[in-house]
Amino acid sequence: MTTTLAVANQKGGVAKTTSVASIGAALAELGQRVLLVDLDPQACLTFSLGIDPEDLEVSVHHVLTKGTDPGEVIIETEDGVHLLPATIELARAEADLLTRTGREHVVKMVVEDVEDDYDWVLLDCPPSLGVLTVAALTAARGVLIPLQCETLSHRGVGQLLDTVHDVRRFTNRKLEVWGVLPTLYDGRTNHSRTVLETIAETYELEVVEPPIPKTIKFAEAPAAGRSILATSRTSKGAQAYREVAANLVTRAGRKTR
Fold it and tell me: Is this structure's pTM higher than 0.90?
């Protein structure tokens, strides 16, 4: 059974896309069949995996709004994962879907079309709580919340959890919050450690271990069109994402190949 995980936080700059790419690559290293779905019109995930969105004739926009078969759009990447890419056209999808009956279920329908081919589907949500994020949460078994360990970064977590509550109530009763993934973490500072403790206490959320350390290696990876697991294999950041992926596999009750 496919495990569909939405990676969401309406605040930008929290390493959400980096986390999707890196966890996906780490799962692939563990022998898992992985599909990444770029639901952000900025198409950062698509670009960071070596694909120029401007060169694409079809994208996830066509799958969601025009009924294009996802198999015609999915791309194999060098990191061992498959990608359903995005382009700026996806910005129109919110408006296109607003008046459509069952709009909350459009991503779920795509996942159901491909789930026999993958062990994991990771949904990279846009930095908002709009139609696409709600549709991703409706399709997901769990939601993972990347969170930069700074005071201002966690102010929006409550809003996201309110949205999760509404999704559970109306469109996906089985949705679980898998926890907060601390990113851009500097364990040398009291501030980072305090913020992390505050999140766990305030929202009663599990903290997914280990925290992802702050390193320039993450900024260098997208320029190469690969994840950090390929560009800096032995770095602390790459190793941290490998450990996170292994913990997620255990959480999902899966066996590595």
Answer: yes
